[in-house]
Specification:
Helix content: 40-55%
InterPro entries: Xyl_isomerase-like_sf, Xylose_isom_bac, Xylose_isomerase
Number of domains: 2
Shape: globular
CATH architecture of the largest domain: Alpha-Beta Barrel
Oligomer: single chain
Distance between the termini: 40 Å
CATH superfamily of the largest domain: Divalent-metal-dependent TIM barrel enzymes
Binding site for Mg(2+) 2: 267, 270, 306, 308
Active site: 100, 103
Number of helices: 16
Enzyme class: isomerase
Radius of gyration: 23 Å
Strand order of the largest sheet: 5-6-7-8-10-12-13-14
CATH class of the largest domain: Alpha Beta
Family: Belongs to the xylose isomerase family.
CATH topology of the largest domain: TIM Barrel
């Protein structure tokens, strides 16, 4: 045991009337919602990068946090960081964690040294996982921080960087598999461009398509039975990123015959950056059959960049889980808190309280979403609105040709009158639950 969280109790459910800051008001792990425990619906995971690797810096200032595992440059400190991480997972009752390679091990002088550091970290945490029952939701490779990736990883104009990226992902898939990870994520923060003056988008897209195909093939070859996920984001750090949003990625997957091999890990903040709502991206991914997992956070709506704050807006979160429940819930995916403290929040208790609030917000949203779905008012409104398309005549028209559809207008004297979309009524219905 370390003393990093000294004096902070294990977080327990005390109910909505509790005023104890170190207690859940809504997240009751074993409470049954729509036939299964809340913890199995939500499948919470803690992000290693924001919680333990991020040092509080921003583009205008450096480190603000002071942690006993800094400066994060040795395996001894990486192991201390892992000790603290598992203490936090246990305090919160979080069943999973997520990681990048660069979060958990120090950078070596060579690729082999960095890889071996990753493997040594895995050796160290496996007994902790077995002892606590805490699992790996997903692993991924950081191919955006080191300067070698400044022009991309798989999309880099230098084929040597492509090879280095392949070696990095191979090591991370191997480690994810060894840890029993249920998914492997690809996020292309540098898979994009800063200017078209030095960019061949067609070539880079081909490189990316081949790389993703190689990843899928390798995962199958080694028997990784988890889900391969891509995480959309339109920009930041790149001016334009190829994984812009759900629709863009789905078109890309279709081009390379990967739409049945790869799903998406969708983040609230990234949806906002792309000009969408979180529920828009989830709804579209669900409709296309590619919704895999989520990164839960929120953005500051005035700042214009990805602030990765903890979720605290129950109405937004409820609509997100409404889409997930309509899908039938997560399979290998879950709710990863891709959220970080504000750089002025320096204390260990801030780290705990941020997650307590986020977990409670998600639990309240889940319960509201379940009630909306069980009551069926929104679903009935959809059924009623599209009822005309359930008729045999409408189905026949949709399966026919343009001339046949056009002929109906004069033959039947069609002069359609508009019908109310009743948006205000539906918004009022949602507000009953949240």
């Amino acid at each position: 045991m370390t003393d990093f969280f000294k004096g902070i109790p294990e977080i327990k459910y005390e109910g909505p009337d509790s005023t104890n800051e170190f207690a859940f008001r809504h997240y009751n792990p074993d409470e049954v919602v729509m036939g299964k425990p809340m913890k199995e619906h939500l499948r919470f995971a803690i992000a290693w990068w924001h919680s333990f690797a991020w040092e509080g810096g921003d583009p205008f200032g450096g480190r603000t946090f002071d942690r006993p595992w800094y400066p994060q440059d040795s395996m001894e400190l990486a192991k201390l960081k892992a000790d603290v991480a598992f203490e936090m997972f246990s305090l919160l009752g979080a069943p999973y964690f997520c990681w990048h390679d660069a979060d958990v091990r120090p950078e070596g002088a060579t690729f082999a040294e960095s890889r071996d550091n990753l493997y040594e970290w895995a050796d160290y945490v496996l007994p902790k996982m077995e002892e606590t029952g805490i699992g790996c939701l997903w692993g991924t490779a950081n191919m955006f921080t080191n300067r070698r990736f400044m022009s991309g990883a798989s999309t880099n104009p230098d084929p040597d960087v492509f090879a280095y990226a392949a070696a990095t992902v191979k090591a991370c898939i191997d480690t994810t598999k060894r840890l029993g990870g249920q998914n492997y994520v690809l996020w292309g923060g540098r898979e994009g461009y800063e200017t078209l003056l030095n960019t061949d988008m067609g070539r880079e897209r081909e490189q990316y398509g081949r790389f993703l195909t190689m990843v899928v093939e390798y995962a199958k070859k080694v028997g990784f039975d988890g889900t391969i996920l891509i995480e959309p984001k339109p920009q930041e750090p790149s001016k334009h990123q190829y994984d812009y949003d759900v629709g863009t990625i789905y078109g890309f997957l279709k081009d390379y015959g990967l739409e049945n091999e790869v799903k998406l890990n969708i983040e609230q903040g990234h949806a906002i950056l792309a000009g969408h709502s979180f529920e828009h991206e989830l709804h579209l991914a669900r409709s296309l059959g590619v919704l895999g997992s989520i990164d839960m956070n929120r953005n500051d709506y005035q700042s214009g960049w990805d602030t990765d704050q903890f979720p605290n807006n129950v109405p937004e979160v409820a609509l997100a889980y409404y889409e997930i429940l309509k899908m039938g819930g997560f399979t290998t995916g879950g709710t990863n808190f891709d959220a970080k403290l504000r750089r002025q929040s320096l204390d260990a208790e801030d780290l705990i309280l941020g997650h307590v609030g986020g977990m409670d917000t998600c639990a309240a949203g889940l319960k509201a979403a379940a009630k909306m779905l069980e009551d069926g008012l929104l679903e009935q409104a959809l059924t009623d609105r599209y009822a005309g398309w359930d008729s045999d005549a409408a189905k026949s028209m949709l399966a026919g040709d343009l001339e046949s559809a056009a002929a109906r207008v004069e033959a039947e004297g069609l002069e359609p009158e508009p019908k109310s979309g009743r948006q205000e009524r539906l918004e009022n219905i949602v507000n009953r639950y949240v």
